[in-house]
Design goal:
The complex is a heterodimer of chains A (about 170) and B (about 475). Chain A is of the alpha/beta class and about 170 residues long. Chain A has five helices and five strands. In chain A, strands 2-1-3-5-4 form a five-stranded mixed beta sheet, with helices on one face. The radius of gyration of chain A is 26 Å and the shape is elongated. Chain A starts with a helix and ends in a 5-residue tail after the last strand. Chain B has about 475 residues and is mostly helical. Chain B is built from 21 helices and two strands. In chain B, helix 9 runs antiparallel to helix 21 and helix 11 runs parallel beside helix 13. Chain B is globular. The two termini of chain B are about 40 Å apart. Classes of the chains: A alpha/beta (about 170), B mainly alpha (about 475). Chains A and B meet through helix 1, helix 2, helix 4 and strand 2 of A and helix 4, helix 5, helix 10 and helix 18 of B.
Chain lengths: ~170, ~475
């Protein structure tokens, strides 16, 4: 084959070798970081939910403890979970909203098989929404990433950003 | 005891998969062990999850577990007997030469690394609250998801309407381990990665005719950053990577079936078609794409009847799942409105911004490095140099999903459709990455213009 005949092969080889090199050099540092950071485990049944719950609320062994607390509420009534409504003004606000909604979902995940109602509120509508929950229709209200309004009765501060207000049975 | 249970779950699952794979391969003189193992995993997960769902309509608890176990072992025994009667023999592929040994070693190291990283991470948001949640609730209710889960709106965030392929594979592990163990359940995603990488190597070798080319793209797979380090990749327990592997497998065997008139490859294509909508709802779009390219290929080769038969399992499964959801009165959140011309005229203005967001995402170095640029170059090669059926199918299978996925955002119900695009498009793109690598593998060997070919006969890698 003549020199000119080799040019396309050389270009082809250079092109794909370049692609391979860029992929290797751009991804390898990330993979290396992933290998070095943290360790395997713990080999725990709640391996995924426990770190999330602890990260959001600061409660160690949170899923188990929350499950035990919720078991003490009336069994046949739903749990009402209040989370923050969409409508962030900035990135920090958006993160807070995402964390509030994620925490609400984790609470719903944990309290199975109890029925749940997830209500999205903002600081202006929270009282109106609470008023829509009948006094005897819920086992309790959980506020995720929100402060529980005063005057609801005894509230239990479970951890950072999570408050439970057990329903008070009225005759 | 947990580890014994885990091993038993894997054994029964693989027994079903091996049985089905050997049944399909009956009559073949040689069966590639790697190909058989990889297909066994895909088919095993599909079969076990389907059996759990179907048998769960009538049974629960221990009788359900025993029945599904018995069926798995029965399928395994039938497949094994068929293989012995047809006097097939297993062949273990061995690399030839320094380059193949080097690439094979790299591939094995990468598989080990991904398994290792996978064990360090927790399940991601969707991995926990969309997929694992179903497995956990089913486990706590004797292996069956209670109807209330589908009909109460309180847990609509977990998308009760999503299919059960992945959750019920997880459930199978839970049933055997005796508890919903979120550490050990993640092992299935590492196995999906290993199976995907090996199948990519096998299919790319078969399509390109060069084993080094197949091994090379399999080595490149984890170097696409989104696959191994981003939320939504292999390590966080989402369904997108398993879906991408089933799509790749269906496509690869479709091309083999078309080029070699291979009915066994067409059967594998048919099973993969059925599994696509069973793994994730977006699988329905990939199902449409594979059916379309399959129709074009079959029409050209005048094999439309056999092609039509291969669609039946998928059609039955899609219809059965919809009937089941209606029967349990499911209440779900609807992220999309029904496609209609009236809606389209209102949302046509979204086309430009969606296209721009697609390009921005594809050129996001942190997620994709230069993968999409390389895929675009390979498509350019296919258009310019390889104008044959294999190229048409590969180009269609890579580009049509992109168009369809973007088109779905025209009907997004989110208050900000751009937020919808940015939050979900990267995961949708990942579903096409193995297919893009298959296209790259096809054009890597220089100066080739024919369709699927065999490598040298003594190389059992592709047998």
């Amino acid at each position: 084959m003549s020199f000119r005949g080799h040019i396309p092969i050389a270009l082809h080889t250079i092109l794909w070798a370049g692609v391979g090199c860029v992929l290797i050099f751009s991804a390898a540092p990330g993979l290396y970081r992933d290998i070095r950071s943290s360790r395997i485990g713990p080999v725990d049944p709640n391996r995924s939910i426990e770190p999330y719950f602890r990260g959001l609320t600061g409660i160690a062994n949170g899923p188990q403890r929350l499950g035990d607390i919720l078991d003490s509420l009336p069994r046949r009534k739903p749990l009402v979970i209040f989370v923050r409504e969409d409508g962030a003004q900035n990135v920090s606000d958006q993160n807070d909203i995402s964390q509030s909604q994620f925490l609400g979902m984790l609470v719903a995940y944990i309290c199975w098989p109890r029925e749940v109602r997830m209500i999205r509120v903002n600081s202006e509508t929270v009282r109106q929404q609470i008023a829509t929950v009948g006094p005897n229709s819920a086992a309790g209200m959980v506020f995720c990433g929100l402060s529980a309004p005063s005057g609801l009765g005894q509230s239990i501060h479970l951890g950072s950003g999570i408050t439970l207000v057990p329903a008070v049975e009225t005759p | 005891m947990i580890l014994v249970g885990l091993l038993a779950a894997y054994f029964t699952l693989l027994s079903a998969g091996v049985g089905l794979t050997l049944f399909i391969f009956r009559g073949r003189r040689q069966i590639n062990v790697l190909e058989c193992c990889c297909l066994s995993w895909l088919f095993g997960t599909g079969l076990v999850s389907l059996l759990l769902w179907i048998c769960g309509i009538f049974l629960s608890g221990f009788p359900l577990q025993i029945t599904v176990t018995a069926l798995c072992i029965l399928v395994g025994v039938v497949g094994w007997r068929e293989m012995h009667q047809s006097r097939s023999r297993f062949v273990v592929p061995r690399p030839n030469g320094f380059l193949e040994w080097f690439l094979t070693s790299l591939l094995l190291i990468e598989i080990g690394v991904v398994l290792f990283i996978s064990c360090k991470h927790t399940l991601g948001w969707d991995g926990l609250l969309v997929w694992e949640i179903k497995a956990r609730y089913a486990f706590l209710s004797g292996g069956v998801i209670p109807a209330e889960y589908y009909s109460h709106p309180g847990r609509a965030f977990s998308h009760p309407e999503y299919p059960l392929g992945i959750p019920f594979t997880e459930l199978w592990l839970y049933l055997w381990m005796g508890e919903p163990h979120q550490f050990w359940v993640k092992t299935i995603f590492g196995v999906f990665y290993a199976v995907g990488a090996i199948l990519l190597a096998l299919l790319a070798t078969r399509l390109s005719g060069r084993r080094w080319s197949g091994l090379l793209v399999a080595v490149l797979l984890p170097l696409v950053p989104f696959i191994t380090s981003a939320p939504g990749g292999v390590i966080v327990g989402y369904a997108d990577f398993p879906l991408s592997i089933v799509y790749l497998t269906g496509l690869g065997y479709l091309i083999v079936a078309t080029a070699k008139d291979d009915s066994k490859a067409l059967a594998i294509y048919g099973i993969c078609l059925a599994l696509l909508p069973w793994i994730k709802r977006e699988g329905l779009i990939l199902w449409i794409v594979l059916v379309f390219v399959g129709f074009i290929a079959s029409w050209k080769t005048r094999k439309l009847f056999r092609f039509g038969m291969s669609l039946l399992p998928g059609l039955v499964l899609i219809a059965a799942w919809q009937v089941y959801l209606a029967s349990v009165h499911f209440v779900g959140t609807s992220d999309f409105s029904l496609p209609a011309l009236a809606t389209l005229s209102e949302t046509a203005a979204r086309i430009g911004p969606i296209g721009r967001l697609l390009l921005v995402e594809m050129f996001a170095q942190s997620d994709w490095s230069i993968f999409w640029l390389a895929a675009a170059v390979s498509i350019f090669y296919l258009v310019c140099r390889f104008r044959n059926m294999q190229s048409i199918v590969l180009i269609g299978a890579t580009l049509i999903p992109l168009v369809l996925y973007c088109a779905t955002y025209l009907f997004s119900n989110w208050s900000s459709y751009t937020a919808h695009v940015t939050s979900s498009l990267p995961r949708l793109l990942m579903q096409i990455v193995p297919t893009g690598l298959l296209a790259i593998a096809t054009v890597l060997p220089f100066g080739r213009s024919e369709t699927v070919r065999s490598v040298k006969p003594n190389r059992s890698f592709t047998s």
